[in-house]
Amino acid sequence: MRTLICPSTRPLAVLALATLFSVTGAITASAQDTTKRATSQQRIPVQKESAGEVARRDSVARDSIARADSIARIEAARRDSIARIEAARRDSIARIEAARADSVARVEAARRDSIARAEEEARAAAAAAAAAAAAIPAWASRRSFYFGLAGGWSSPTGDYGDPYKSGWNITVPFGWQKAVSRWGVRGDIAYDSHGGKSITQSVVPPILEVTPFEGAAVSTNFDVDNSSVWSGNLDFTVDLAQWGANRLGALYLIGGGGVHFFDKPSFNVTPQTGAGAGITTSYEGDSQTKFGLNGGAGLAFGIGRAAMFLESRYFTAYTDNTNADWIPIIIGFKWH
Q1: pLDDT over 90 (residue 312)
Q2: Are 166 and 95 found together in one domain?
């Protein structure tokens, strides 16, 4: 429905509307103030907790903190233990490596020292060999075999000297000895001739006791023929001293053994008294080959590649009834 306001009443209408709006706004503001006061005057209820609940939460908090601290300490101790173990492992490895390096160094030093000593000894030996080679001529350093020829006087002795007298000797020596050695081996072939004697006695010389003649009871003349001995000897020699440019000069010893062949002994027997006085009977024994020993000494003087030597030995042969002994003294030469 439309309200018609006439122009004469329009001012009054505007005034009425303004008054209405003013009253409405005052009522609204008053209602809002009342609501605010009611709201501010309403109390909010506060619920208080008990002391046991608070203590429990504090205990839980403390336990949690203690547990966290214990875990932290355990973790720190674990890390420290691992660190110490790792440090000990590194130290052990370092010590082992240092010991190994020291051992290798010592072995290497010992090896170098051993090589140095061996080289020094080799150099010394080479120098000594060179000096020795320079001192000895080339031919002398190669020499080993020698041969010679000698002869001289030979004298029976002992029981062998009763029916025989001095004679002569020929010896052919040959041997082997290095120039730088004092030891050598020598062989020789010798011939000794001893003259027979004419003796008168009532006892038969033991060397002449042969079958059928076995003795004499009365004074008897024994006219003995010459005796001969062939000998083959093998001896060792040792130089007690050596001298000379070629070391052929020496004072030496010689000794060994050999085989000796004695020719048949023969003699005439003439009793001087008794029934057969003046009757001469000839007897002949058997030849003998016997083993014997010898030993002696000699002196040699070098002459170029040869040596002149003077030597004497004592010979004994184990013949029947008694030994046959003799001493030759010979002079000769050896060629190297």
Answers
A1: yes
A2: no
Q: Confidence band (pLDDT; 50, 70, 90) for 2?
A: very low
The reply to whether 48 falls in a domain is no
- The per-residue pLDDT for 37 is 55
Residue 153 belongs to a domain with what CATH number? 2.40.160.20
pLDDT band at 4; cut points 50, 70, 90: very low
Dist CA 230 CA 170 (whole Å): 10
Q: Same domain for 233 and 208?
A: yes
Flag whether pLDDT at 180 surpasses 90: no
Characterize 187-219 residue by residue with b for buried, 16 or more Cβ atoms within 10 angstroms of its Cβ, and e for exposed.
Answer: bbebbbbbebbeeeeeebbbbbebeebeebeee
Write the pLDDT tens digit of every residue in 5-21: 444 445 555 565 655 55
Is the pTM higher than 0.90? The answer reads no
Same domain for 164 and 83 = no
Give the domain-ending residue among 111, 135, 159: 135
The full 3-state SS of the chain, as one line of letters, equals CCCCCCHHHHHHHHHHHHHHHHHHHHHHHHHHHHHHHHHHHCCCCCCCCCHHHHHHHHHHHHHHHHHHHHHHHHHHHHHHHHHHHHHHHHHHHHHHHHHHHHHHHHHHHHHHHHHHHHHHHHHHHHHHHHHHHHHCCHHHHHCCEEEEEEEEEEEEEHHHHCCEEEEEEEEEEEEECCCCCCEEEEEEEEEEEEEECEEEECCCCHHHCCCCCCCCCCCEEEEECCEEEEEEEEEEEEEEEEECCCCCEEEEEEEEEEEEEECCCEEEEEECCCCCCCCCEEEECCCEEEEEEEEEEEEEEEECCEEEEEEEEEEEECCCCCCEEEEEEEEEEEEC
Which of 115, 135, 155 is the last residue in one of the domains? Answer: 135
User: Do 300 and 331 share a domain, yes or no?
Assistant: yes
Q: What is the pLDDT of residue 286?
A: 87
Domain extent for 93: 71-135
